[in-house]
Amino acid sequence: MIRSILIHPDPRLKKRCEPVGEITDEVRRLAADMLETMYDAPGIGLAAPQVGVMKRLLVMDCIKDGPAEPMVLINPVVDWASEDQTIYEEGCLSIPDQYADVKRPAEVRVRWTDLEGAQQDRQFAGLWATCVQHEIDHLDGKLFIDYLGPLKRQMITRKMEKLKRERAREG
What we know:
There is one protein chain. This protein is α+β, with helices and mostly antiparallel strands. The protein has a single domain (11-170), classed as Peptide deformylase (Peptide Deformylase, Alpha-Beta Complex). The chain is built from three helices and seven strands, in the order H-E-E-E-E-E-E-E-H-H. A hairpin with a 5-residue loop joins strand 6 and strand 7. It starts with 24 loop residues before the first helix and ends with a helix.
């Protein structure tokens, strides 16, 4: 089921999420819905708070051409980040049609629980590293625009407020 994506500014996007406890059918359904929503948007990552669920769960798939590689990360933690930095032009499904360069570690190692309850560990580089850090930020109530200067951040926030008003009128 495709879920609606919250648009910034929304107070839920600025809150730290609770860990997922037991992996239930409800959690599996949420993950499936989030993947469907992400692909439909289209995007390469989506965090649970973006669909109004305040849990530490994210989905991502950074494969543009070729077979899909959907990933579901429950309670992800970055346990290592490279000193090397990379700059990538980021966007966000909660901040549609706005993009900005964000500097992040070029590589990260992340630990998480999968849908079967098994512990996973993987080192990400390139777009995957940028995406997983962006989505984990969502779980901590942080948006990519928080890395920008105040003027640029305010300008984007005003555009999003206008977009929300227009969408509300269209109802």
